[in-house]
User: Which sequence fits this backbone?
């Protein structure tokens, strides 16, 4: 997958998170998790990946990808929490959960590959 494809994919994910947060505003717990946590981490995946693509050194890329992985993992946690606490039905966000799972895997693999290539 090319960096441009992932930029587009992470941006589309961020847009889906924004739409979910609008829905969550109707629930008091959803409002707190949505506005204070999910919106921030879910959109940060796209913003930080975009920044990683512009890094001038492998060291900076690895560092920024670490941030991307952290934000993606945090987003995955908030989505799980929303479902497991009963705030949101899994059927509503299963596509988002699948997508963030894939993004975590892709970004983690990219970071590991960059680390390995740095040592070679």
Assistant:
């Amino acid at each position: 997958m090319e960096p441009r494809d992932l930029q587009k994919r992470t941006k589309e994910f961020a847009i889906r998170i924004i739409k979910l947060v609008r829905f969550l505003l109707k629930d008091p717990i959803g409002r707190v998790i949505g506005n204070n946590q999910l919106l921030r981490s879910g959109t940060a995946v796209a913003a930080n990946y975009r920044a990683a693509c512009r890094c001038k050194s492998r060291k900076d890329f690895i560092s920024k990808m670490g941030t991307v992985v952290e934000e993606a993992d945090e987003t995955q946690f908030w989505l799980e929490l929303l479902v497991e606490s009963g705030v949101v039905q899994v059927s509503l966000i299963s596509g988002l959960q699948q997508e963030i799972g894939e993004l975590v895997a892709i970004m983690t693999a990219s970071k590991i590959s960059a680390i390995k290539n740095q040592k070679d």
Remarks:
- The chain has one domain: 3-119.
- The chain has a mean pLDDT of 94.
- The domain at 3-119 is CATH 1.20.1440.60 (de novo design (two linked rop proteins)).
- DSSP finds four helices and no strands in the chain.
